[in-house]
């Protein structure tokens, strides 16, 4: 038995693709003998062509290898020549430099092609361009336009041929410009000219002109024919499902455009080659003449409501009748009240068509089932589950529930409608037997309390008694609450709701005034303390204001007696907090804090326990000396005395008498001066009496040496202040005799000053003596008087003082700097309206005017603030809130900006979820409310309809990142809701919007479903023929099959000859390495070629 070569079937199939048809047929031919089936080695592996010279320069071998397409490089090279006379830049001395070189670099950067320039003997320019094909063509166009002089020419072709030169989206024109390296300008459609302008090189002009004339000549062969055919005969020309017109187009090669039934045009347009158009026109006219001669009509009356059944979805039923009978059925338009249906066709076919029309019209029926309207939602079931079971069984039946009507309308095939009707009647009968309803009257103001926070109360009643409770929304202003469900549960729920309502009528709401600083303490950490209060008074609802509101009002609501008890209890809590919140600060020298604390905190711990107070010391790295004591007043005073006693044992103190009028100047701006003395003297404490008390005593405490040092410094500074701050009286002495007389009158003799005779006479130290000429002395006196500060008082309303001072005193500092005066605002506890302005007389009037002007501005701001704080609320069902807010807040932001108001929606845990608050000017707030109400009115007019769309097309309708669904929603102005994963009915889609928009959107969605579903079905059918993904079992089975198969075998292989054996893999002769020299030998494999 001979040896055979074994290949896999996949390798053989791949190899067969390169064989000639006759070779494939010979390989694939079957016979009884196995050797005849096997291909020979040369057939399976044809030899490579031998290198031999032929007259044509190459050898044509008739074998499979000649059929292999050679690989082409993606990089091409072209050379362009620019004659000397057409060169733009002819300066030979600047070749490779200047503008020409810059242009070449720019072209390479733009196109990505590589350019090389060279100069020919005739001074012409040769440009070699390398790169990808499109890059080379672009570079060529740039070279021609920028390095070669341009010429222009015009070519005239018929105006109607221009669009063929341009091509679709201008692609043909761009291709032509690249191909010819020219610029082609085509006149605009409104321009009557038929001349096309071409600019470029002479060679390019000729090529472009030739190409344009070729396009025009080609179009001259084509024709357009318009044939007027009565609209009623169009169906006979198109045929059922457009079969006739498609056959005519295929037969003639012409394009035939028949206007659709919805377009009221009689003109049929045929385009194509003249002969093709003439043939198509003849065929159309032949059909028309034949039908006009032979066709007759009959008119029948069909109910308007049944017309849609005759038409069918997308007119399919009409096409079906036309296909079966050859009769055209004409239906009056939907906006017509006519019920006449016209049948047109051959007389012997009209009877059959009429039977089909009546059959289709009566194939659907409309029926109704009596059912109380309150039972409708129980029939539908939760999320439409009950109804979905029926519709899944009978998908062709349309079930319609009308709100407020005691009936259900059914529409669909007669048999299906009867089955659905019997099912729904059974459901209605069952519900009527086991369910009941009742209505109770409750004041609408108690409705939200019956519902409870987050619906807690009403949900508990529903779950407990297995009933449904409908509480009307606030905008209905109805007091009827409807309870539906099991008869016993209805009665029990009614009883509990009435009890709750009765209890609410006895409820009382009380507002307590509690300072906001105590709110956190009453609530406690994590609400522990307020929980204790609520547990003690479970029937009382306690509401604290939002911290941001800075309100002191705490609201209590509940039964009258319980509210009173709770109120007294909380007042007692607040009183204790007030009593225990007394605080006093004790200044203690920083170096003595450790003595106050004691060893291991013994002293401070003992004081805290014995006085029952809280004592806080500043941190070690703090500069503060204040120790804060908190608790009851008496206890705080006791603790304070004990701490001061400890300090008293450790420090020395003394008192100094300094006139009180000097205290402010000694303290300095923001206490800087006195602080510098205290720091310099070892941290002593200097205490000045309260401003305005009139006390002159200043107390100094601290270590002995530091106290004495501070006392000396303080007295020294005080003396300097006394000398510089005296009130001066000016006396002028104009001559020596006058001075002597004045001295005598004041009791001055021999250089000594005696006691003045007049007690009002100023002391010598208060006198400034001026000597000089009289007029100059008088001028100096006036100048000195002008430097004496003057104080005036301005009346400003007390409530404006804090605005005049400004944030951290910025407002008053700005005025003092601007007017060069000192402005003194009275302390808040004085409640005074008088502001004092001190400064030079020349500055006071301007400062007063500025202050009064500021007062006017503040009063105007107050009035504007009051006008802007107008507030109103609007009640809107929470389900409409997202629509009012809009996508990313677009709608509500527009309303806010347009009306300059603030619109606040309720928080998630707010009881009044339906209240929207608007703040701003009254007129603008009302306008904003009207704008919101208009949106709500539009939303309330909207309806919601469920349709069934195959879940396999949902993803395509939604589109990438929701683009498709957003386009549909924007186009039809509706909202679409697709089912989530795991929904009971994955095909159920909800459409919400205005009735007319919803209908249009549903039609569009159904059309999309039909279109996409065809693709889905086609893909699924393709998947059935595709090779399934390999599994473990299939892989093992495949291996087993391959092991048992012989594989691919060939006859007459070289190694099967008697003189040859299979090549030796280890032999360097059979498998030489690169560079190794071997002795050639004859082999059945053919001559070796290296």
Automatic annotation (TrEMBL):
GO molecular function (one): mRNA binding
Subcellular location: Cytoplasm; Nucleus
Role noted for this protein: Appears to play a role in cell sterol metabolism. It may function to protect cells from over-accumulation of cholesterol.
Bias (Polar residues) ranges: 1055-1070
Domain K Homology: 149-217, 221-289, 294-362, 363-429, 434-502, 506-575, 580-648, 650-719, 788-856, 868-937, 941-1010
A Pfam family the protein falls into: KH_Vigilin
PROSITE patterns in the record: KH_TYPE_1
Superkingdom to which the source organism belongs: Eukaryota
Protein name (database record): Vigilin
Primary location class: cytoplasm
Signal sequence coordinates: none
Lineage of producing organism: Eukaryota, Metazoa, Chordata, Craniata, Vertebrata
CDD domains: KH-I_Vigilin_rpt1, KH-I_Vigilin_rpt13, KH-I_Vigilin_rpt14, KH-I_Vigilin_rpt15, KH-I_Vigilin_rpt2, KH-I_Vigilin_rpt3, KH-I_Vigilin_rpt4, KH-I_Vigilin_rpt5
GO biological process: cholesterol metabolic process; lipid transport
Region (Disordered): 15-38, 1025-1090
One GO CC term, this protein: cytoplasm
Entry keyword set: Acetylation, Cholesterol metabolism, Cytoplasm, HDL, Lipid metabolism, Lipid transport, Nucleus, Phosphoprotein, Repeat, RNA-binding, Steroid metabolism, Sterol metabolism, Transport
Natural source organism: Scleropages formosus (Asian bonytongue)
Keyword Hydrolase listed: no
UniProt xrefs under Gene3D superfamilies: K Homology domain, type 1
